[in-house]
Design goal:
- This protein is α/β, with parallel strands linked by helices and 270 residues long.
- The chain is built from 9 helices and 12 strands.
- The protein has helices spanning 17-30, 55-80, 96-103, 126-132, 160-168, 170-175, 190-205, 221-230, 253-260, and strands spanning 5-9, 33-40, 87-93, 109-112, 137-139, 151-155, 178-184, 210-215, 235-239, 242-245, 248-251, 265-269.
- A 10-stranded mixed sheet has the order 3-2-1-4-5-12-9-6-7-8, sandwiched between helices. Strands 10-11 form a two-stranded antiparallel sheet.
- Strand 10 and strand 11 form a beta hairpin.
- Helix 3 (96-103) packs parallel to helix 4 (126-132).
- The radius of gyration is 20 Å and the shape is globular.
- The two termini are 17 Å apart.
């Protein structure tokens, strides 16, 4: 597998330069085409007072402000991307999560910042995107400008989602200096060790030397993050686990913790 088309999501309320720089570096690293993308929606009005402008006028003002900001983001993107990297731009006044999920059909990889779960009209809902896009999602840490991915932690669990994540992340794993495949061992039997060994053999067939670790302790996201920091991981690869319930995404504990983490970049597949 190779990344030949990468979508970079520019949040309307965030500084664009860091995420664009990440996209440029990844496009150069993998020889990929880069698609800059931005979207935001006009929220429905909850209430208006007497004597105020009409709802239609308020919504048009908000739409005009969004379109102005999208134009600014496009200008930054087009100014930063060098001529050596092929690129294009896409924007829309609509739900950023929905727009990015639709545009994912034209990409091998989605790159986005941490998002803002409190304002789905102006920022991507990372959980819904990860579970619904059908493409791997790279969530950058903070305002990070570089995804070095030199030490990569593969958070292993013997599931379809984790297998998909390992396969999707092969281009990163091939270029890493240190790959650690780890699982939190709660069963205390040989099954966990055998599972890790099989993943290491799979990676070896792709020319990737990986070491394996059984993490003792409770199977939760905090334990996983603590281990990631102990090995100085700068990227965590994991499956994303969740399902749709009453039109809202419900997540497992580890997935939710990883989505909420902002100190380490995460690569997630579903």
């Amino acid at each position: 597998m190779a990344y030949k088309s990468i979508i970079v999501n520019l949040a309307i309320d965030a500084a664009p330069a860091p995420i664009v720089q990440v996209g440029i570096e990844l496009a150069k690293r993998f020889g990929a085409h880069i698609v800059g993308l931005a979207a935001a929606d006009v929220p429905p009005l909850v209430a208006t007072g007497e004597g105020m402008v009409s709802e239609g006028e308020i919504m048009q003002i908000q739409r005009t402000e969004i379109e102005k900001r999208l134009a600014e983001l496009r200008a930054v993107f087009e100014r930063m991307v060098p001529v050596s990297v092929t690129s294009e731009w896409a924007q829309s006044v609509c739900s950023p999560t929905r727009f990015l999920s639709v545009m994912a059909r034209a990409a091998d990889l989605i790159v986005t910042g941490c998002g803002d779960g409190d304002n789905v009209f102006r920022a991507v809902d990372i959980g819904s995107l990860t579970l619904g896009a059908g493409r791997p999602v790279l969530i950058t840490a903070g305002n990070m400008e570089h995804i070095r991915a030199k030490t990569v932690l593969v958070a292993w669990k013997d599931t379809r989602e984790a297998r998909r994540a390992v396969a999707d992340a092969l281009p990163f794993l091939e270029k890493a200096s240190d790959v650690v495949v780890a699982t939190i061992d709660t069963s205390r039997n040989e099954t966990s060790r055998d599972s890790l060994d099989d993943v290491a053999v799979f990676l070896d067939h792709h020319g990737i030397k990986a070491r394996t670790e059984l993490i003792a302790g409770k199977a939760d996201g905090d334990r996983l993050l603590s281990f990631a920091r102990s090995i100085h991981a700068d990227l965590i690869v994991s499956g994303a686990y969740g399902h749709s319930r009453l039109r809202e995404w419900a997540f497992g504990g580890v997935t939710r913790t990883l989505i909420e983490e902002s100190g380490i970049s995460r690569f997630m597949s579903h």
